[in-house]
Amino acid sequence: MLGGSKRQKLKHGKYEELENILLEWFQQARSLNYPINGGVITEKAMEIAARLNLTEFSGSTGWLDRFRSRHGIVYRQISGETESVNNDDIASWKNNVLPSLLRDYTPNDIYNADDFELFFKLMSDKSFVFKNETCHGGKLSKERLTVLVCTNSTGTHKLKLVVIGKRRSPHCFKNVRTFPCEYLAQSCAWMTGTLFMNWIQ
Prior knowledge:
Blueprint: H1 4-12, H2 16-31, H3 38-51, H4 61-71, H5 87-102, E1 111-118, E2 145-152, E3 162-165, E4 182-185, H6 193-200
Parallel strand pairs: 3-4
Antiparallel strand pairs: 1-2, 2-3
Helix pairs in contact: 2-3
């Protein structure tokens, strides 16, 4: 049986002050409907750890899983726009602000980038079955990569895909010298602000 101090440690985690600050930031960000993935949480945690001089904090996948479990944070599909989005404000920004931002750029010089998760071992969630058969699936694989795509507004310049994995040198890269894409490594295979800024530069 666990003693009281041990239970308290499991409940609050080793980095209680860091997690309290992080949780407050998370609540504020979600109140504004900002989308937050694991990479964003980890990067913010590392930033807070640096401020608190927690040099041993690594922001590992295990820590992230425990932090989410302690605070009831789950990863869900964003379901459409909320009432906080004001269509009049959007129209006003597009008509009055956006043109001034684009004035000095040609369409060839305006780029759009977006990333998505690739669950490369995930089986289909649908299957042909016999009419009277109960359709059960196996355990779902969570192995994934993050892929960033980018092109200019005319489609005349499509940048190389950026693929983000967990390991810097996976075994499958052995004896492979050239890639059709740019490969980056991050402990949770997320696109972070730091990775994005390094890629931009």
